[in-house]
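Deliverable D4.2, example record:
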Amino acid sequence: MEWGFRFYQFFLWSSLAFGHARTPLLINGTVVTDNSWNMVVNIASSKPDNCTGTVVGPRVVIANASCFMSDSTATFSVNGTSYTAKMTLSPSYPAQLDDIALGLTNQDITGVVPASIGGTASTGIGITMLGYGCSQDPGSNPPSFDGKLRVGSTTVTGIVSGGVAGTDNIYMVTGNGTGTSNSALICFRDDGGPAFIGTGAKQLVAINTVGDRKTENYSVRLDIPVSTTFIQKFISDNNGVEICGINGTPAHCQNGPPPPPSTCSLTANPTTVQSGQSVTLTLATQNATSATINGSPANAAGDTKVITTSATGSFTVPATVNGPGGPGNCSATYTVTSGPAQAATCALAASPTQVQSGQNVTLTLTTQNATSATINGAPANAAGDTKVIPTSATGVFTPQANVNGPGGPGSCSATYTVTSPSGNAPTCTVSATPQDVVIGQQVTLALSVTSAPLTATSATINGVAVAIPQGTEVVTPTDKGDVSVKGFVLGPNGSSNCYAWYHVDDNGGNPNVPNFAVIEQYCGSNTATSSKVQQVCIGVVKRDSTLGDLRINQAVQITYNDGTGEVMPLLDQIATPTPTQFDLKLFANIIVVADTYQVLDMRDATLTTDTSTKAVKGGISGPNGTYTVPTSIQGRSATGEFFNVTQLNAVGTTF
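Output generated by the structure prediction step:
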C-alpha cells in the first residue's frame, strides 16, 4: 500500500507538471435532478482543467489547490448566475500535500444553501460523494465527460498518511481496493469532488485529490490541523468572511443534520384519588421550545400543574411540545373515585389589624366546600366575601365567621385592635386667588392640610367636599362686597376650621348697560302653546360702584309673542322637600288693597336646578355663597299667562 500510494503521489505531481487536463467525474452514481446538491459546482480555472468545487459560505467556495495557479481566479455558475472567485492556495501545498484552495467571490452567492464544513473522518462511516461526468469506468485516460452532476454512497475504508513529514492521517480512503465494489468512486484524476458525512446531512469532511478510477479514492481531510489552520487564516485575512460550520451564521448556513424532534413524558401523581383531592401532573421535555398541558401554556423546559378534582371517572390529560425538530405529544391518566364529602372550611382576615377609633376595618372571608356562610352573624357569600366594619369603642375584637356544606360545618376568626385617637386634630389653611375680583370673574379657593402627619380624613370649602391633603373649588361671584371663605378638615383626632376672604367689585360694569337693567343669564322658550308668553329668562340687576348694595338683585324677565315684555323682581326663594326645586315669589308690579293695607301682588313659580353643577355666572343662590344652575321653570306672568320652560340655557350677556 505504501509503495502504491507513493506511485499515486508521483502520478499526481507528474500531471501537475505536464498539465494534463482534469475532468471531475463520478462512477456508480445517480444523476442529480433537483437543487438538493446545488452547492456543488463545476469550476473553470486558469489551467486547462475543470474541477469540482463546493460553496461553503455566502462568498466562499472550496476546491483543490492543484486546479489553480497561485493567486489565480476561477469561475462557476449557480442557477444560471456566473461568479468569479479569487483563489487562495494552502501554503502547505504541495510540500505537505494539503491540496486545498479557498476562493472569495466578487458578490454574494444566491439561490443556494452553503454546505457546512464539519464532522470527523473515521474508518467505517458512511460517505456521500459527488462529481461531474462519467457514470462508469470509461476505460480511457482522460475519461469521457458528459457534464452531469452525480451523487453516490460509499464507506471510509482507511485513514492514511501522505508519506512525507507533516502529513500524518491526511487522507481519507474510500472504496475497497479490489475493483469489485459498487461504491461511488470519483472518476480518474477528478479534483475537488466533495465527500459528505452521511447520506442526507451536508457536512463536508473531505475533498477528493487522487484516485485510480477503479477501486479507491483519496480525499484530503478538512478536520486535521493543517487544513483547519489554513481555513482560519483565510477567514482572518478576509475580514471574518463567513464559512459555514466554522464561523457561519444561521441566516446563511445549514449547520449539519436536522435537529432532533421534541419529545415529552407526562406523569400523574397519585394516579387514583377521591373526588375533591388533587392530582399533580409533571411534564418532562427534550428539545422543546414550547409546551402545553391540557391546552394551557406550560414551561418548555418542564413544568408541574396541580388539578383539583370534582367529577368521578378516568381522565386522560394530553400534553404537547414543539421545537426546531418538530412537534411531539404525551399524556397521563388518573382515576377519580367517590369519597366522603369534605367539611366546609374558611379563613377570615382583618385589615388593618390595628386602627384608631373611628377608622374602618375590612374583613375578608375565603371558603372551601361551603354552601352557606356568615360573618359576625350576618349572612355572607358562601364563595367568599368582604365586610367593612366602622369602629368606635376601643379594645381587642375577634369577629367570627361560620360556614357550612355537605361535609359539615366549619368556623374561623380574625382579630383586630382599636385604640384611642392620639395626637392633635388636623389643621388647614385656605386661600382665595385672586383676592380682588369683579362680578363674573372666577375665584379659585384652595385648601391645604397643614398638620403633620397628615391625619385628616375629609375636607370641605364652604361646605363643598374637596380632595385632601390639597383641594380646590372654583366660584364665580355675582354680588359685590367682601366674601368670607371657610375651610374645614376632619380626622380621627378631631376637626378644625381655617378662613380666607376675597373682595368683589362691579368695576363700574359695562358703561353701555344702564343701571338697574336686567341682565339675562339663563333663558328658554315657553312650551305651553296656548300661552302668549314666548320666552322666559332669569337674570341679575345691574348696578355699579356708585350705588349701594341692592336688596333685590335677581328677576324673571318675560317676553311675549308680540315683542312686549315685563320684569318680575325675585322677592324670595323657598326651598322645597325636593333638593333640586325652589318656590319663587315674584313681584307682579301691581299693588292690591287688602282691608286697609296695600299689598304687593305676587306670582308663584317653580324652579328646578342642577345642584351637582356650580353656575359659572348668575344662577340661583344656594348655601354658603354657592350658585346652582337653573334647568327649568314654570309659573304665571304678571298678566296671568301660564309658562312652562323645560330647558333653560346659559346666554352670553355680560355686564
